[in-house]
Amino acid sequence: MPQSQLIISTSGQGLYEFTEQVQSFVRSSNIPIGLCTVFVQHTSCSLIIQENADPEVQVDLKNFFARLAPPTSDPSMSYITHTYEGEDDMPAHIKAALTQTSISIPVTNGRLVLGTWQGIYLFEHRDRAYERKLVLHFSQ
Fold it and tell me: Does the pTM of the predicted model rise above 0.85?
């Protein structure tokens, strides 16, 4: 079964679409039908399938999660004990726990079966730049 690693460079919190890279991986497998699984090998970012037509959706998602889990310097987060990796680290773990580290997308006729406005995103929850490692796996 085909498997590959993908590295996505981030430049801080936000959503990074990589739908085309996954589609390219699926095409290169020459398998017409199956299931593509994407797994991120980190605990402070996550994966989501989300609208890719209106960029305001991405802005609103980022703002929502920022309110839900603000930096540990925020008084509302005074109960947090894991702080030695920075004020954005534990909130990043919380955000990742609320989303997902693995997604599966059906494949038909050699193409990802995504809806019209759906895209695959790495959701970076940390403030600084990272190189995030993902594993792509395609099975029949």
Answer: yes
